[in-house]
Amino acid sequence: MRKPYTAIPAAEDDPLVRKDGKIWLPILSVKLIRTHLYTPSILAVVDSGSPCCIFRFDLAEILGLDIASGEVGSMAGIIAGAGAKIYYHNVKLQVESDWVVAIKAGFMRELPVVGLLGRKGFFENFKVLFDHSVHPPEVEITRIAPVI
Amino acid sequence: MKAVDLSELLRNVPPESWVALSPEQSRIIAAGKTAKEVIEKAMKDDIEEPVVIWVPKEWIPAVY
């Protein structure tokens, strides 16, 4: 599946931003599923820099999860400092309308986006190509056949 | 697949809020402090498949 990046707002006077006041990001529409409960479609950023799939804690409530009952870890970001708590739960991840994979998702309170699709859970299940030779750039994902 | 441009739609949404978009991501159905409230508002408006996004404190380039 090949999908153009999605544009989100950005300050027009930022040196990284073209004068059109937008930034293009590799975003996929995903759902989280747990037993019979599922989130609506959420816009998650494909992020090879993230060690796992991480979502905002509010989504855990929709899945009927007691976020604090999950396995607890710490997660640090690019800004140096103490890591924040992350709570892991086993859920299913529906990617666009095509695939469903079982993952261990992390839930955090401090996440500045609704979701990140990271190396464990996403990149281990999909081969990913970021194509910046076109405008807007495109992201192409191919399901990696599961090893049985 | 056509590119989706949410830049103007989301630019003036209050920071640190949840937004429910229409399924084709062309209009805002609801904005609020929790995911639950925007989802409930979308359901009240008979929007069966809203698309949900979180609006950050500032729209600045970020490393996640």
What would you note in describing this structure?
The complex is a heterodimer of chains A (148) and B (64). Chain A is mainly beta and 148 residues long. Helices cover 3% and strands 49% of the residues of chain A. Chain A is built from one helix and 13 strands; from the N terminus they run βββββββαββββββ. In chain A, strands 4-6-11-7-10-9 form a six-stranded mixed β-barrel. A three-stranded antiparallel beta sheet of chain A has the order 1-13-12, with no helix packed on it. A two-stranded antiparallel sheet of chain A has the order 2-3. In chain A, a hairpin with a 2-residue loop joins strand 4 and strand 5. Chain B is of the alpha+beta class and 64 residues long. Chain B has two helices and three strands, in the order αββαβ. Chain B has a three-stranded antiparallel beta sheet with strand order 2-1-3, with helices on one face. Chain B is globular. At the A-B interface, strand 1, strand 2, strand 3, strand 6 and helix 1 of A face helix 1, helix 2 and strand 3 of B. Strand 6 of chain A pairs parallel with strand 3 of chain B, so a sheet runs across the interface.
Q: What proportion of the residues of chain A is helical, as a percent range?
A: under 10%
The protein's oligomeric status is heterodimer
**Annotation field: number of helices of chain B:** 2
How is the largest sheet of chain B built, in terms of strand order? 2-1-3
Beta-strand residue percentage of chain A: over 45%
- Poorly predicted runs of chain B: none
By secondary-structure content and strand pairing, the structural class of chain B works out as alpha+beta
The geometry of chain B reads as: globular
Order of helices and strands of chain B: HEEHE
What strand line-up does the widest sheet of chain A have?
4-6-11-7-10-9
- Rg of chain B is 12 Å
- Structural class of the secondary structure composition of chain A? mainly beta
Supply database-style keywords.
heterodimer, A: 148 residues, mainly beta, six-stranded mixed beta barrel, three-stranded antiparallel beta sheet, 1 helix, 13 strands, 3% helix, globular, B: 64 residues, alpha+beta
